[in-house]
């Protein structure tokens, strides 16, 4: 029988291959998390995913406009981690970095990031709230994995197709995009290009 991690990766691959919209992808994440792991989180999760993600969008668009990826960057990594807050509590966030090599089937490329913009950390309110929801469940570990990877993969797919990213990619070779845990699995999102996101080149 497949475990939750395997099923989560399959879910992400499915909504990326048959992309409709960010809302549609997040509906699939909610359905999977509530039917497979913990039905009691549906209301809270639906509320979190209906906020519009304005903070994360502003962070990304400002970063890309002020710190365009250098010409040599071939891979862009969105890494998830658990910061310790000022009050001593644990949370969740993500950051961006770039590498001069990329391999969609080998996460080792993300271990050598050469592009580290000064505003790399998102300070994501959505990730913080997702972590809080998962932390209150008896299925904490499985929910953290599914919700964080499921949300961020869909969100980055949506961001990479926005005009600001397309503009940043003008006269730039395609950049491979991946989302993952610093100490674990990753999901291949696709390639950012001047004409939008592509799953294959």
Question: How is this structure best described in words?
Answer:
- There is one protein chain.
- This protein has 201 residues and is an alpha+beta fold.
- It has one domain (4-198).
- The protein is built from seven helices and five strands, in the order H-H-H-H-E-E-H-H-H-E-E-E.
- It has helices at 4-17, 22-36, 42-48, 54-66, 125-135, 140-159, 163-168, and strands spanning 75-81, 93-99, 175-181, 186-193, 196-198.
- A five-stranded mixed beta sheet has the order 2-1-3-4-5.
- Strand 3 and strand 4 form a beta hairpin.
- The mean pLDDT is 94.
Short description:
This protein is α+β, with helices and mostly antiparallel strands.
Mean of residue pLDDT values: 94
Biggest sheet statistics: 5 strands, mixed
Q: Which regions contain 5 or more consecutive residues with pLDDT less than 50?
A: none
How many β-strand runs? 5
Radius of gyration, whole Å = 16 Å
For the termini, the CA-CA separation is 33 Å
Overall, the morphology is: globular
Proportion of residues in helical segments: 40-55%
Helix/strand/pairing category: alpha+beta
SSE string, helices as H and strands as E = HHHHEEHHHEEE
Q: Order of strands across the widest beta sheet?
A: 2-1-3-4-5
So what's the oligomer here? single chain
Number of helices: 7
Count of discrete domains: 1
Strand content bin: 15-25%
């Amino acid at each position: 029988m497949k475990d939750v991690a395997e099923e989560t990766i399959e879910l992400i691959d499915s909504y990326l291959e048959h992309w409709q919209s960010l809302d549609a992808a997040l509906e699939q994440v909610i359905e999977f998390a509530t039917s497979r792991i913990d039905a009691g989180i549906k209301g809270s999760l639906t509320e979190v995913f209906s906020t519009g993600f304005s903070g994360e969008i502003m962070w990304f668009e400002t970063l890309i406009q002020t710190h365009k990826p250098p010409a040599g960057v071939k891979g862009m990594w969105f890494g998830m981690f658990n910061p310790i807050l000022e009050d001593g509590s644990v949370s969740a966030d993500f950051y961006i970095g770039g590498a001069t090599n990329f391999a969609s089937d080998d996460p080792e490329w993300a271990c050598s990031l050469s592009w580290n913009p000064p505003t790399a950390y998102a300070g994501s309110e959505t990730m913080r709230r997702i972590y809080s929801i998962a932390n209150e469940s008896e299925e904490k570990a499985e929910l953290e994995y599914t919700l964080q990877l499921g949300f961020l993969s869909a969100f980055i797919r949506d961001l990479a197709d926005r005009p600001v990213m397309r503009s940043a990619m003008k006269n730039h070779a395609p950049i491979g995009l991946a989302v993952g845990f610093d100490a674990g699995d990753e999901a291949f999102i696709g390639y950012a290009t001047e004409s939008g996101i592509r799953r294959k080149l």
